[in-house]
Amino acid sequence: MNDQVDLAIIIVSWNCRKYLKSCLKSIFQSKKDSSVEIFVVDNNSSDGTVEMVKKEFPKVQLIANNFNAGFAKANNQALKIAKGKYLLLLNPDTEVKADTLTKAVAYLNDHPKAGIMGCKILNPNGSLQNSVRRFPNLSSQILILLKFHNFFPDLEPLKKYFAKDFNYHKEQEADQIMGAFFMIRKECLDEIGLFDEKFWLWFEEVDFCKRVKDKGWKVLYTPELEIIHAQGKSFAQIKAVKEQIIFNRSLLYYFRKHFSPIEYLILLLFYPLNLFLALIVEILESLSLNPKQSN
What we know:
Elements (H helix, E strand, L loop, with lengths): L4 E9 L3 H14 L5 E8 L5 H8 L4 E5 L4 H10 L4 E7 L3 E3 L3 H11 L3 E9 L9 E2 L4 H8 L10 H6 L10 E2 L2 E2 L3 E5 H7 L11 H11 L3 E12 L10 H19 L2 H9 L1 H19 L6
Parallel strand pairs: 1-2, 1-4, 2-3, 6-11
Antiparallel strand pairs: 4-10, 5-11, 6-10, 7-9, 8-11
Helix pairs in contact: 1-2, 9-11
């Protein structure tokens, strides 16, 4: 008996109860024309997320971890049991529009060579959110470790990496798309395998896109469907230095996996300076949040 559904939606959540609730509401309002299963994988939230899902969304398949498994492992937990022809990884701080899910399924039905599909992502105020990048190279990542992207964003390696020339109003192929809305064809997943769990957070979707393209599948972007993304509500809870350490570990592992040993070692040389810069940022943020009181 074939019990496959059109779409499986997987949401990994960590202390985002308010946003997750809005996200799930939007999904149930949008899924009318497609057979959909919904998973929430909670990474040991302490804000009542698990209780809220159980009480208000009993049809959701809940996986409640008793530890923070990270993004790759948590998604894999649901991907292993999902029955969808297509698999949508969705951030908890997103909302889908009324026709998004129906259009998404129809789009992949019409594009059989697409292994991954991304859509137009909007900020809550309706402005465009950049969601496409090219694959990393050594020069762009050195500049990012040195924080040059905050002060000299028009340097050519950064412009290329951040795909400043990308036309978000045109359907086209991309290198990598943002994980906020990351739709995968099940046949493609079966061929290339699950997310690499050595990435705890960051670069897992970059690695996945690269593996997909290396196997000859397409990563497609379409502006024909849209979501709203509040962006970074889980990440905002992590302090600058800790966030930087997690990012660096993923970046270095990505380079060790996909680049030459020399390029990996060159990037590694910038690690200590990068952590020093991250510490300065954390100190400045702390001072701005806790200004000294005048006597």
